[in-house]
Write a structure and sequence with these properties.
With 339 residues, the protein is α/β, with parallel strands linked by helices. It has one domain: Ribokinase (UDP-N-acetylmuramoyl-L-alanine:D-glutamate ligase), CATH 3.40.1190.20. It contains nine helices and 15 strands. Strands 5-4-1-8-9-12-13-14-15 form a nine-stranded mixed β-sheet, sandwiched between helices. The radius of gyration is 18 Å and the shape is globular.
């Protein structure tokens, strides 16, 4: 990997999704409360971008949470908190009970009003939109379509939102992403884990009989399906194995590449790892226009998040240290923008 291929000042990344008040019970029985989701993505991006760049979170929160959230994010000089609003006094609240490092039971106690096109009109000058919804109603297809029709930005979508829904009692469950083909033309990079990939791909017959994780062949079929409908790259995270990505190379051929993990001596807490991965993915693509380098940054930021408790926002390394971490893990790579 070459050094950061920045070519101009003042890059801007918009981050769309909730900032939930999370009640966490770890698999060791520890209990704590924190804010999450967009907050992790924004802070991870802050560590990677320059002081004259801008991270613009767009989120709806409760009035009692707006001040504390803005105080936390306001301590980072390149985060603009003006897009965090509480006009409707609605915001997500969640309970997360971990059964293991990567397994948890989720319940939602309150919900925010959706992010609609009117909410993003002031950030259409962004270079990248990172959408990290946690439930299906928060960032809809119409909002992605509006962004693509009114800006030249790349759109990164975490599939956690459209593949998760709520029961009336607040329990969060996987749902079939049956209308994914309506979304795909407006997504540049689609990020998901294995469970979400299973909700997104049922095969051409669309039969609802499979319960297990998708096979390697089914992941390839899903990747090809998305690429054929306009997505630039599909990235599937594989927990401790890193991630696999599908994209077209410069000759137009579909390429599948496994990007191994950034090693960790000890996993402390995986809360926010996916949101942090999305931040690295967005930064890597913005800086290098290279899907593999983007995945390397995704793995690095996700790994850094796991090195401390969920309340610790100081786990992210500087861009220079992250670059050294990536170089030590993957070796040099000649990016499309690098010399």
């Amino acid at each position: 990997m070459t050094s950061d291929a920045k070519t101009e000042q003042g890059r801007k990344v918009a981050v769309l999704g909730p900032i939930p008040r999370d009640q966490i019970v770890t698999n060791d029985g520890e209990r704590f409360e924190k804010y999450g989701c967009v907050l992790y993505t924004a802070v991870a991006l802050s560590a990677l971008l320059d002081d004259d760049d801008t991270i613009a979170p767009i989120s709806h929160v409760r009035r009692r949470d707006e001040g504390p959230i803005k105080e936390i994010l306001g301590s980072f000089p390149n985060i603009d908190t003006s897009g965090i609003t509480s006009t409707a006094d609605q915001g997500d609240g969640t309970e997360l009970r971990y059964l293991g490092h990567n397994r948890r039971v989720e319940r939602q106690t309150s919900f925010m009003n959706p992010i609609v096109p009117a909410d993003v009109t002031e950030v259409l000058d962004a270079d990248v939109f990172v959408c990290v919804p946690i439930t299906d109603y928060e960032v809809g297809q119409a909002t992605l379509q509006y962004i693509k029709e009114h800006s030249g930005a790349a759109v990164v979508l975490d599939a956690h939102g459209p593949t998760t829904t709520l029961t009336r009692s607040g329990e969060r469950h996987p749902r079939v992403w049956a209308d994914q083909d309506v979304w795909l033309p407006y997504i540049d990079i689609l990020k998901m884990n294995l469970d979400e990939a299973g909700s997104a791909w049922l095969g051409e017959a669309s039969e609802l009989s499979r319960q297990e994780e998708p096979s390697a062949e089914e992941l390839r079929e899903l990747g090809l399906h998305c690429l054929e409908r306009g997505v630039g790259a599909v990235c599937v995270t594989l927990d401790e194995r890193g991630c696999v990505t599908y994209y077209r190379d410069d000759s137009g051929e579909v390429t599948e590449e496994l990007v191994g993990p950034v090693p960790l001596e000890r996993v402390v807490d995986t809360t926010g790892a996916g949101d942090s991965f999305a931040a690295g993915l967005a930064y890597g693509y913005l800086a290098y226009r290279d899907y593999i380098v983007a995945c390397q940054y995704g793995n690095a930021m996700g790994a850094q998040r796991c090195t401390g408790p969920g309340t610790d926002l100081n786990v992210y390394l500087s861009r220079e240290d992250t670059q050294r971490q990536i170089l030590a893990t993957y070796g040099p790579r000649r990016s499309r923008l690098g010399a």
